[in-house]
């Protein structure tokens, strides 16, 4: 049995050592853990800025700052509740999305078949589809909770090609791995290529809450709405960091002005309750566009830490 507690940052300073997610042990073994942090360094599905292949390690480097206790959930010590390792990165084939998809699906299938919850660091948003395939193979069609400023339900991008960061949540419906009757898309805003951007998601069966809807609703009611919509179903939560305003998250593929502050974003995540989380990812961090202080990577690391706390809180409540 290896260690599933992070390095003690009061014993060894946070700038020492090779950075792993929150200073967890890096070890590909899935024995004796509840959740696995997996890097998916692919940007082969990016229609605009490439560079999200550097996301996982940029997020890890900032995550060493984060501490193990989450005060927003009753002083929860995340890693006493949940045994977690950073299992490293899956393989990818740059420029070859379908081969990359096979490698992602294989890596995530190994995690879910070991009874472990996959928690991934992207990568552009195309990486979510093969994860959904692997998760649905184990749990059946998932309830998708999708934070993003874009719906990503396009039919194709460029020359009729079906796989891209703009299409996974239509492909997932076609492949019957997303249960849209229990799924919700949150945060859509900005200019569009087609006026049907929101209605096409509704036609697929998703509930859609725009950025304006979320501000009107407020974080408590939003959390209730998500819990009701997904009630009892296996949930995959996918978080595109461009949900956040570019002032707080500039390092993304496709920034959309007029979004959520870092505080508003984290408040929403800290309110989430009663979600049967079977997998999640944080995607679209492109550190090549980050500012001094690597604020986007730091926020993405914090988002993943909140998702770990959500899972740990659920496990604590179930005991
Ligand atoms: Mn997206
Ligand atoms: Mn987006």
Describe the structure.
- With 319 residues, the chain is an alpha/beta fold.
- The chain has one domain (21-318): Arginase, Chain A, CATH 3.40.800.10.
- The chain is built from ten helices and ten strands.
- The strands form two sheets. Strands 4-1-5-10-9-6-7-8 form an eight-stranded parallel β-sheet, sandwiched between helices. Strands 2-3 form a two-stranded antiparallel sheet.
- Helix 3 (97-113) packs parallel to helix 4 and helix 4 packs parallel to helix 5.
- The chain is globular and about 55 Å long.
- It starts with 34 loop residues before the first strand and ends with a helix.
- It binds manganese (II) ion (2 copies).
- One manganese (II) ion (MN) is lined by residues 148-150, 240, 242, 254.
- The site of one manganese (II) ion has 7 residues, from loops.
């Amino acid at each position: 049995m290896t260690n599933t507690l992070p390095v003690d940052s009061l014993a060894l300073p946070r700038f020492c050592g090779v950075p792993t997610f929150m200073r967890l042990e890096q070890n590909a073994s899935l024995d004796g853990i509840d959740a696995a942090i997996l890097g998916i360094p692919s940007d082969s599905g990016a229609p605009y800025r490439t560079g999200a292949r550097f996301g996982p390690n940029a997020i890890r480097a900032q995550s060493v700052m984060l501490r193990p206790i989450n005060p927003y959930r009753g002083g929860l010590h995340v890693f006493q509740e949940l045994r977690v390792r950073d299992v490293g990165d899956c393989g990818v084939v740059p420029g070859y999305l379908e081969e990359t998809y096979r490698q992602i699906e294989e890596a995530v299938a190994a995690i879910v078949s070991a009874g472990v919850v996959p928690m991934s660091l992207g990568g552009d948003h195309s990486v979510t589809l093969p994860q959904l395939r692997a998760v649905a193979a184990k749990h059946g069609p998932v309830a998708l909770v999708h934070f993003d400023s874009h719906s990503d339900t396009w039919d194709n991008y460029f020359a009729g090609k079906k796989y891209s960061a703009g299409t996974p949540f239509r492909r997932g419906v076609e492949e019957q791995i997303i249960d849209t009757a229990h799924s919700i898309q949150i945060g859509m805003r900005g200019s569009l290529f087609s006026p049907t951007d929101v209605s096409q998601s509704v036609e697929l069966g998703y509930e859609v809450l725009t950025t304006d809807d979320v501000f009107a609703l407020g974080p408590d009611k939003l959390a209730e709405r998500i819990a009701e919509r997904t009630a009892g179903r296996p949930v995959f939560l996918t978080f595109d960091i461009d949900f956040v305003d570019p002032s707080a998250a500039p390092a993304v593929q496709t920034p959309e002005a007029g979004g959520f502050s870092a505080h508003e974003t984290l408040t929403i995540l800290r309110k989430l309750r009663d979600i049967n989380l079977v997998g999640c990812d944080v995607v679209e961090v492109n550190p090549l566009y980050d500012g001094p202080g690597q604020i986007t990577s730091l926020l993405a690391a914090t988002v993943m830490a909140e998702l770990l706390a959500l899972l740990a809180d659920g496990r604590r409540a179930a005991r």
